[in-house]
Each structure stands twice: as structure tokens, then as C-alpha cells.
Design goal:
Length: 215
């Protein structure tokens, strides 16, 4: 039923807003001009103004065989090897955003290096996509859908360091953070209300108290 509704919406969108389909030979150019580096079949359908999935997949297969596009995951395609791996990580399972150790390490909260990309999503899973290991960490739906402390950069959703700090404590009761000096504690307590979790509130107050006592 959901698939039928999606196909109906796609046909409606195309017929209403995308009557001017690209001319033959311009299909690849349209993808290459897009700001996206990773495409789903649905993305391509909208860009091409094409509602027939068979036509889309056949055309994509032709470009892949010719070496003009790269298939990075089932149903996901990239312009070339220089695609944004974080964009890919958030396109495999949605909704999702980059967070946890990926953000904590980049922001100097944790010093340990991780090769995995850590992503908050609706399931726990570790996969490998085109050589990149990606760890998905399950979050409660109400938390996952709340965008407080989430920034969008080049089409990719990223947790702020304060959100990543709270997310990690939300799923891991005890955790060692190397450097809490970089956190904005006003933002931490602002985002904390998203979780509606008494255990987390007590834990954060404990970390804050210990932080203050060491200053």
C-alpha cells in the first residue's frame, strides 16, 4: 500500500512540476550538475522527471557499465569515487544523522580515533559500504525526529558536539570523555529536555558537577 502511494505521489509530482523532461543525452549531465554526490532511485526519478522505475534503473545500469556512475550500495549511486561518505551513511537508513564518536572526535571531546562512521538512526546495525564501515545506533523515534542540536551541512545532518555528548550518554550509561571543556553547557541542558529521561538528567548533572569541580 505504501509503495502504491509513493508511486502515485511520484507521478503526481512529475506531472505537476516537472513537465519539461531532459532531452536525450542530458540525463547524465543533470546528475553531475546536482549538489548531491549520492543518489537514490527516487532522487533520480525527480531529477529526470521519470516515473517508470524500470526505465530509470536500466539507464543507471548503462552509465555504471560505461564507468560514468558508481553503484555504492543497493539502490544508491554516486557520481564517482569522490562522493561524500557521510552523505552515503545518512542515505542508507533514514531518518538518520552523523553523531556519537564521529562528532565527539572531530570536536575534540574524545581523543580516540575511530575508522567507523557513527550514525544515529532507528536500528542497531554495523555494515560496510564500498569499504567504509558504518555503525548505526538505535535512538527512540521521538528523540531521532527532534532536530534540536542537529545542523545540516551540504545536505548531511550532523549532531552538534552537545547533542553527540547527550546521545552517547543516552545509550551508554557510563562513558569516558577526554575533554568536556569544549562543551557549551547551556546548550547541553537545553537539548537535554528532548530525551525526557530522568536517568539521563541525573547523569548529565553528575558529569557537569564533576566538570565544575575540576575547574
Amino acid at each position: 500500500m505504501l509503495l502504491l502511494l509513493l508511486k502515485w505521489y511520484l507521478k503526481y509530482y512529475i506531472s505537476t512540476y516537472m513537465d519539461n523532461r531532459p532531452s536525450k543525452g542530458n540525463f547524465l549531465e543533470i546528475l553531475l550538475r546536482s549538489s548531491k554526490t549520492v543518489f537514490s532511485v527516487q532522487d533520480v526519478a525527480l531529477l529526470w522527471g521519470e516515473s517508470e522505475s524500470t526505465t530509470i534503473t536500466n539507464r543507471l545500469k548503462k552509465y555504471i557499465r560505461a564507468g560514468k556512475l558508481l553503484r555504492v550500495r543497493h539502490g544508491l549511486y554516486a557520481k564517482d569515487e569522490n562522493y561524500d561518505r557521510y552523505e552515503l551513511a545518512t542515505r542508507i537508513y533514514t531518518p538518520s544523522y552523523i553523531g556519537f564518536e564521529t562528532v565527539l572526535t572531530r570536536e575534540g571531546v574524545s581523543f580516540q580515533y575511530y575508522g567507523n562512521i557513527f550514525v544515529a538512526s532507528y536500528l542497531n546495525r554495523e555494515i560496510e559500504a564500498n569499504g567504509q564501515k558504518i555503525t548505526y545506533v538505535r535512538m527512540k523515534r521521538s528523540v531521532l525526529s527532534d532536530t534540536t542540536g542537529i545542523n545540516h551541512v551540504n545536505g548531511v545532518a550532523w549532531a552538534t558536539k552537545e547533542r553527540a555528548f547527550l546521545d552517547r550518554l543516552y545509550v551508554t550509561k557510563e562513558y569516558h570523555f577526554d575533554n568536556l571543556n569544549v562543551l557549551d553547557w547551556d546548550k547541553v541542558f537545553e537539548i537535554l529536555t528532548v530525551y525526557e529521561n530522568k536517568r539521563l538528567e541525573k547523569q548529565v548533572k553528575k558529569y557537569h558537577r564533576n566538570f565544575v569541580n575540576t575547574q
